[in-house]
Amino acid sequence: MRGLQRMVVLGVVASMFVVSGSAGALAAPAGPASGGTPTTGSATDDAPATTASATDAAPTTIDSCTRIAEPGVYVLGEDVLNASATQDTGISTGNDTARACILIASSDVELHGGGHVLEGEGYANETGSATTTTANETGNAIPSESENATVASSFDESERSQFPVGVAVRGANGSALSNVTVSNLSLSNWAVGALAANASSTSMVDVNASANANVGIEYLDGADGLVANSTADDNGFAGLYASETRNLTVLGGSFDGNGFLGVNFFGGNEAPVVANATVSGSGIAGIAAVQSSDVVVADSTVESSGGDDRLFGFSASYLFVGVSNATVLDSATRDDDSWAVYATDCANGNGTCPNETESESESGPEASGVGAVTVSEIDVDGSSGPVSFGGADVAVGSVDALDDASPADGAFGLGQGVVATNTTRDAFVDLSTSWGSGRPVGVTNTSFSAENGTPGTEFEDASIAVDGDRVAVSGTIWAPNACYTAALSAVEYDSAGDVLTVAVEATQANASTDTACAQVITEVPYRAVVSLSGPPGAVEVVHVHDGERTVVATTAGNETATEPVIASAAAGDRSA
After folding, report:
1. Angle, vertex CA 572, rays to CA 571 and CA 575, nearest 5
2. Residue 262's Cα: distance from chain center in Å?
């Protein structure tokens, strides 16, 4: 199968891993640790967590790390700080084993955090040295050596979890679980804040999984999961990471300042949905999907993301690599440093995919369905209106965001402030734009000057010269007395008619009551220059007197008017 393989991303100090639940890497969860007297729902340094079970309808209160093995309602009764993850999840992470502070090993469980904090002792790297999650200079969380590591010096290094997880939903021997809810809980200082593996109908509601070394919330191999109104900020790798899931829905929430990716569907995800989410400050991509299908992003905003090309060779607000049928609806990008949308079948930029033959490449995305994306009404910051397009292996972004990104050769402008390019040789795009109103769309600069008026008649004229994206207007407007001058009233764009309107107004230059003005009709010459991000379809010049507007000159955008256009006799005729 073409495309990316499973990745291991190295952090700045300690190695970063994303949990892998691959076959053959599972082991039976560890039982209660020996030493001390077992207690339900609590743990001490001498007697780590034991099994908590619910035998009646009353909620079970837990106050430390534990294993939940029976259906029921469980409530965290207090903050749990500097906790060590002792519950074996049976998931291998390469050389490490994922262990959880709270392991939910039963279906039909509700764990209510009560607004409390479940805080780890800090992520331990492969050498066993203590690390905590801190913010680097860019605000992204990374695992790093810390003088303030909250690990007791007497802690037995041989018992240290190499990959600690705050809350894990994982059945015994990897058996499937269902109907589990974790809510109103804060998880920090773990490798992964919350993990659900092979669990269907599992929900994370009002969970704050922030400042973890690798991932805030992670889903592996499950169906019908839900992440609702949750926060996953300042995690070292990703706010949310999902692999081999079906129908996972991310509804609302904040994903801010994550080191590489805000929301990431990596490998084998079917029909994931992100709606009403806000993602910001992600190094590589705000929302990304890799080798997944039927991805939908709706009513979401990605801000200040992208610019870091280390992982894929490119970055974007919305990034799709080897994805079949990605859809972005009514979403937006703001202040981003890369492409708004980037879809490709490759992870190495333009050209054929790795190990791909010329004949395979020529089959195209329509045959393979890979790299295909549909975008409906995305508001690309720096462009003049929402953009919609369908295509494959194509990147679309704002000209402003890509000024410093040096778009690939062959990139071409689409509308005002939008640029597109191919990401493989199989690319195609069908793009449309709609321009907004109420502001000078596509106008990049204006200049205006007026000369002193001379006595005359109610005469006015204007000439228009269009040179590509530059429009020059020279004209004369009449004024009621010598104290008046000319001023640029407005520069407007009519999207329906593709018409640029330059409005000039006769206005009083000196409003002082003690200034004597010659009470004669005055003719005031002026010149206006308007620069745009693209050539206008047509131009008209309007003169304004006491709020009343009169069109005095018009021309098509590709024409040049060199002779003055004289207004009608009703507006004043020099020959009259």
Report:
1. 150
2. 7
Q: Among residues 558, 526, 522, 523, which one has the least CA distance to residue 541? A: 526
DSSP code for 510:
-
Write down the pTM of the prediction: 0.62
Asked if 328 and 378 count as a contact pair (C-beta separation under 8 A), the reply is yes
Q: Is 42 within 8 Å of 361 (Cβ atoms)?
A: no
CB-CB contact of 495 with 506 (8 Å): no
As a whole number of angstroms, the distance between CA 153 and CA 168 comes to 27
How many CB atoms are located within 10 Å of the residue 152 CB? 11
Name which of 295, 352, 350, 351 is nearest 320 in CA terms. 295
**What are the structural domains, with CATH classification, of the chain?**
10-259 (2.160.20), 291-434 (no CATH), 443-571 (no CATH)
Burial of 133 (0-12, 13-18, 19+ CB in 10 A): buried
Residues in the chain: 576
Residue whose token pair is 């837990």: 62
Token pair in block for residue 32: 């209660």
Please tell me the predicted confidence (pLDDT) of residue 324: 85
* Distance (Å, whole) CA 203 – CA 249: 9
Q: How far apart are CA 302 and CA 282, in angstroms?
A: 9
User: Distance (Å, rounded) from C-alpha 64 to C-alpha 36?
Assistant: 15
> Cβ(248)–Cβ(270) under 8 Å?
no
3-state SS assignment for residue 571 = helix
How many C-beta neighbours within 10 Å does residue 516 have?
A: 8
Q: Are 249 and 131 in contact (CB under 8 A)?
A: no
pLDDT digits (tens, 9 = 90+) for 270-322: 999 999 999 999 999 999 999 899 999 999 999 988 888 777 778 889 999 88
Contact criterion met (CB below 8 Å) for 151 and 128: no
Please report which residue ranges of 363-507 form alpha helices under DSSP H.
365-368
pLDDT tens, position by position, 193-245: 999 999 999 999 999 999 999 999 999 999 999 999 999 999 999 999 999 99
Q: What is the pLDDT of residue 56?
A: 52
